[in-house]
Write a structure and sequence with these properties.
Part of the 30S ribosomal subunit. Contacts protein S5. The interaction surface between S4 and S5 is involved in control of translational fidelity. By secondary structure, this protein is mainly α. It contains 9 helices and 3 strands. A 3-stranded antiparallel sheet has the order 2-1-3.
C-alpha cells in the first residue's frame, strides 16, 4: 500500500509515446469531447481495460459460484452507468471502448442535454458551479453519470443561467445571433441607397455644369 500523501496514478500511459495512429485518434477524441488533455483519455482507457480484464477472468471461472455473483454485479454496474444494455453479457464488456466511458462523463451529458452551446462551454459551466445533479452542485467535468442522475442534470439553483433570458443560454444565444444579422443587412441596404443618391447628385451637378459651359 502506498503512502496516502502520494496517491498512485489513476491511468496507465501508452507503451510507446510516438505512434501516429494513436496520436491522431486521441486528438480527435479531445476535440469531440472537449477534453483538457490526453490524461483524461488515458483514464478512460484504463477503466475500460480493467473492466475487460475482470470480464475475461469471470469468463474463465464461469463455473464458480463467486464468479457468477461478481458477473451479476459487474453487468448491473455497467447497466446503471448506461454503458451496457439491460440484457448484455460479458462478451459485450469485451467490445467496450474508451468512448463508452467518455459518453457518460458529466461534461458530455451537459452538452447532449442542450444545457450548453458547445462541449467546451459545458466544461466551463461545470467548473464555475452552474451545473447541479439532484440539486447538488457538481464541479468535476469527468465524473461518470448514472442513468438516474442523467435525468436530474440541471442548472444549479443559485446560477444566473436559470433565467430564460440569460445570453449564455443556447436558445437565447442563437436568437441573439439572428437578431444581430438583420440590422447588418439593413445597414448595407441603407448604405447602398445613400451611395446611389450621391452618384445621382454628382451626375446632375455634372450635367448642370456642362449646360453652363455651353451657354
Amino acid at each position: 500500500m502506498g503512502h496516502p500523501k502520494f496517491p498512485s496514478k489513476h491511468y496507465d500511459t501508452p507503451s510507446h509515446p510516438w505512434q501516429k495512429v494513436r496520436i491522431e485518434e486521441e486528438s480527435g477524441l479531445i476535440h469531440q469531447y472537449g477534453l483538457k488533455n490526453k490524461r483524461e483519455i488515458w483514464r478512460a482507457n484504463t477503466k475500460v481495460r480493467e473492466m475487460r480484464r475482470q470480464a475475461r477472468k469471470l469468463t474463465a471461472n464461469s463455473g464458480d459460484e463467486q464468479a457468477q455473483k461478481e458477473k451479476i454485479l459487474l453487468l448491473a454496474k455497467l447497466n446503471r452507468l448506461g454503458m451496457l444494455e439491460q440484457n448484455s453479457g460479458l462478451e459485450d464488456v469485451l467490445t467496450m471502448t474508451s468512448e463508452s466511458v467518455l459518453d457518460r462523463r458529466l461534461q458530455t451529458q451537459v452538452y447532449l442535454q442542450g444545457l450548453s452551446s458547445t462541449v467546451k462551454q459545458a466544461r466551463q459551466l461545470i467548473v464555475h458551479g452552474h451545473i447541479s445533479i439532484d440539486g447538488a452542485v457538481a464541479r468535476i467535468p469527468g465524473i461518470l453519470v448514472t442513468k438516474l442522475q442523467e435525468k436530474n442534470i440541471t442548472y444549479s439553483p443559485t446560477s444566473a443561467l436559470n433565467s430564460d433570458l440569460h445570453p449564455v443560454r443556447p436558445g437565447i444565444q442563437e436568437k441573439t445571433d439572428d437578431e444581430m444579422e438583420e440590422p447588418i443587412e439593413e445597414k448595407v441596404d441603407e448604405k447602398e441607397a445613400e451611395n446611389a443618391k450621391t452618384e445621382d447628385r454628382a451626375e446632375s451637378k455634372q450635367v448642370e455644369e456642362t449646360k453652363v459651359e455651353k451657354k
